[in-house]
Amino acid sequence: MKWYYADGGRQVGPVEESALDDLVRAGSVRDDTLVWHEGMANWQPHGTVRGPRPAAPMPAAGAEIRFCSECGRPFPAAELVMVGNASVCAMCKPTYLQRMREGGQAIGARHYAGFWIRFVARVIDGVLLAVVGWIIRMPLALMIGTSVALPRDPGAALGALPLLLGLGGLMALLQIAIAVAYEAYFVSTRGGTIGKLALGLKIIRADGSPVPVGLAAGRYFAQWISAIILFIGYIMAGFDPEKRALHDRICDTRVIYAK
Known about the structure:
Helix content: 40-55%
Order of helices and strands: EEHEEHEEEEHHHHEHHHE
Shape: elongated
Radius of gyration: 26 Å
Strand order of the largest sheet: 2-1-3-4
Number of helices: 9
Strand content: 15-25%
Low-confidence stretches: none
């Protein structure tokens, strides 16, 4: 049986029933997508005409999973093909290329975020972390200050110096821990820090998949490298075609405008 389906106001088809099943599994045809075949009086939603979607095949154990930039569904990496900067599944490839030929922006096309908007996002994050860090550290500092009184005798005061330096180091480590947890949690679960989300940005991997928590934490420390070389690592984003800073190159991430 030959089927036709609607895609963005366009009629697509005819396609074989098996091909339609593949489109359903790929997410290109959803339950509310209008479909039609000869003998039907009118176009109707796919879910009404054909019932539940066919189950997607299970990937082999241990297979690397990536996400199609067009439909956003997970696939074994070997089943995706690179089209420009996007990784797309076999069923999405024709639709993706057709959109590009028509001069439109494909669903998976990326609009990379440049240096200045990322700088503003970093300022927002910095202010937020400073406030949160102050709120957390201040009670601890007051508790320490009341329990560790600096002796008036210069010799005794000098002896207390290692303790005070140790407490200062502990405070610094606490601030770093807060920053790492903040970055790892928000990037891995929300796609970006609060500063980036507020400006409509998100962080993804090169293949379009979300950034896992371990990589998000590693990306935070990679930003230190961008900073200690006189912030040249950040400035690189202004000259790279994909707006990658040094830490993006290290972690193979991209910062894009969210759709």
